[in-house]
């Protein structure tokens, strides 16, 4: 029986991971986040109230679930405590005591959003489309070995020295390159001193907790953020996020052993969406795309930005299946395609030299001149909303799902037919 399950996005993020993570966390003892920061949100439903979690793992809604924030996550303390307060107000029990943070997690400081916004402003029309929350600059400082970590707060004298050096570097950029106001050492130190004790009370050895949980046969869910094609290595670079969003990133960012993963569940919509700039071969800039956006309520959980919409991309999915070692797929928002006369699937890319490719390129500039090759399928007029049994689906809807399986190279484990927990068809439950 699988005990260690990874849940991750296989498209450009916003695939509906929150619902699936919430469904699976009802059976999980431990849920861990391993990358990203407060730039990605999962919408959860508490009673009749929606709560967006960004840093806090989705398992927080279940009172006996331990929630871990791994070393691969960049932690904005203010944003974390705002989330905790929102969850407390929603009536979630013992929120803070059930969150453990790796001391090796990077601290996201007020200077990082300033750098992020300055960088995007300077890029102009070439802006990547970041959330402006400072995630990228924080990862940049981590890799450059000038960043500060949560565990550095144990020794404040050492922390002050690191902070001083970091701000000298970043303020030089803000003043001389971005022509933006500097961030003072005193303001950042005051901010950190205000959250230090509370944050350190949550620090623990995440890798050890995971290993002890595995040995005790606990059910552990590894919760991914963003999506495969926003991965810093395998996404549409440079229009990507700043961390590894693929299955391998869940291992390195949490401290789990790679041979201890039992099941990798990839989340995808039955169409595609993308937020921000970057290549998007199947994008629909017409009334069909606008209809999908409206019916699917395709607006960012954190930013509110309208998402770009398009047809399902089986070419991209083939790459996602391979690099994530997907065991199964969870397909979301089946009901959004209800009532359409025709539905298209991208089966290949026609390159600018006329050749046909079955796999996507690895850099944004290589997408220039690409034309999607489509296969058309008949739609269905019947409603799929809320259906919970495969046999009750319209025949054309079944044919569509089976064709997605064939083209993508992965079996469908879960099919979502609405936003609620019970509006789901289970063909293979990862924890069973």
From TrEMBL:
Pfam families associated with the record: Adenylsucc_synt (PF00709)
Q: InterPro entries, per this entry?
A: Adenylosuccin_syn_GTP-bd, Adenylosuccin_syn_Lys_AS, Adenylosuccinate_synth_dom1, Adenylosuccinate_synth_dom2, Adenylosuccinate_synth_dom3, Adenylosuccinate_synthetase, P-loop_NTPase
- Where, in this chain's numbering, is GTP bound? 13-19, 41-43, 307, 333-335, 416-418
The biological pathway it contributes to is: Purine metabolism; AMP biosynthesis via de novo pathway; AMP from IMP: step 1/2
**Where does the UniProt entry say this protein principally localizes?**
cytoplasm
State the UniProt keywords alphabetically.
Cytoplasm, GTP-binding, Ligase, Magnesium, Metal-binding, Nucleotide-binding, Purine biosynthesis
- Which GO biological process categories is it annotated with? 'de novo' AMP biosynthetic process; IMP metabolic process
E.C. code:
6.3.4.4
The compartments listed are: Cytoplasm
Q: Which residues bind substrate?
A: 301-307
User: Where along this sequence does the record place binding of Mg(2+)?
Assistant: 14, 41
Q: Name one GO molecular function term.
A: GTP binding
User: Do the record's keywords include Membrane?
Assistant: no
The record's catalysed reaction(s) read: IMP + L-aspartate + GTP = N(6)-(1,2-dicarboxyethyl)-AMP + GDP + phosphate + 2 H(+)
Q: Where does IMP bind?
A: 14-17, 39-42, 131, 145, 226, 241, 305
Q: Which GO terms describe its cellular component?
A: cytoplasm
Q: Which cofactor does it need?
A: Mg(2+)
Q: Gene3D superfamilies under this entry?
A: Adenylosuccinate Synthetase, subunit A, domain 1, Adenylosuccinate Synthetase, subunit A, domain 2, Adenylosuccinate Synthetase, subunit A, domain 3
Q: How is the cofactor bound?
A: Binds 1 Mg(2+) ion per subunit.
- How is this protein organized at the quaternary level? Homodimer.
The protein depicted here goes by the name: Adenylosuccinate synthetase
Name the source organism: Succinivibrio dextrinosolvens DSM 3072
């Amino acid at each position: 029986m699988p005990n260690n399950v990874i849940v991750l996005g296989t498209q450009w993020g916003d695939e509906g991971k929150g619902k699936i993570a919430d469904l699976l966390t009802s059976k999980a003892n431990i849920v861990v986040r391993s990358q990203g920061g407060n730039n990605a949100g999962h919408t959860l439903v508490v009673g009749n109230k929606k709560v967006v979690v960004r840093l806090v793992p989705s398992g927080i809604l279940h009172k006996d679930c331990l929630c871990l924030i791994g070393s691969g996550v960049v932690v904005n303390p203010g944003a974390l405590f705002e989330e905790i307060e929102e969850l407390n107000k929603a009536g979630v029990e013992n929120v803070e005591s059930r969150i453990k943070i790796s001391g090796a997690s990077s601290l996201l400081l007020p200077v990082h959003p300033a750098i992020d916004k300055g960088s995007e402003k300077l890029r102009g029309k070439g802006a990547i489309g970041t959330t402006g929350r400072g995630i990228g600059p924080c990862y940049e400082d981590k890799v450059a070995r000038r960043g500060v970590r949560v565990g550095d707060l144990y020794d404040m004298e050492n922390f002050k020295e690191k902070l001083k050096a970091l701000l000298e570097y970043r303020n030089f950029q803000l003043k001389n390159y971005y022509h933006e106001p500097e961030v003072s050492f005193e303001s950042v130190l005051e901010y950190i001193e205000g959250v230090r004790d509370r944050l350190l009370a949550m620090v623990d050895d995440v890798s050890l907790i995971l290993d002890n949980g595995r040995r005790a046969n606990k059910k552990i869910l590894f919760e991914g953020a963003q999506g495969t094609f926003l991965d810093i290595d395998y996404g549409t670079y440079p229009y990507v996020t700043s961390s590894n969003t693929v299955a391998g990133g869940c291992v390195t960012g949490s401290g789990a052993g790679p041979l201890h993963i039992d099941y990798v569940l990839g989340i995808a919509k039955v169409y595609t969406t993308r937020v921000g700039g970057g290549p998007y071969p199947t994008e629909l800039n017409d009334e069909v795309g606008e209809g999908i956006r409206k019916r699917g309520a395709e607006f960012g959980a954190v930013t509110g930005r309208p998402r770009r919409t398009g047809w399902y991309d089986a070419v991209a999915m083939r790459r996602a299946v391979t690099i994530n070692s997907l065991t199964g797929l969870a397909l979301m928002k089946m009901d959004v395609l209800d009532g359409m006369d025709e539905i298209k699937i991208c089966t290949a890319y026609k390159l600018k030299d006329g050749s046909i490719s079955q796999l996507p390129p690895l850099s944004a500039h290589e997408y220039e001149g690409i034309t999607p090759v489509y296969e058309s399928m008949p739609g269905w007029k019947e409603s799929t909303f809320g259906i919970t049994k495969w046999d009750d689906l319209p025949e054309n809807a079944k044919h569509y799902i089976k064709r997605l399986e064939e083209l993508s190279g992965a079996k469908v484990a879960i099919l979502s037919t609405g936003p609620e927990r019970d509006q789901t068809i289970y063909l293979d439950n990862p924890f069973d």
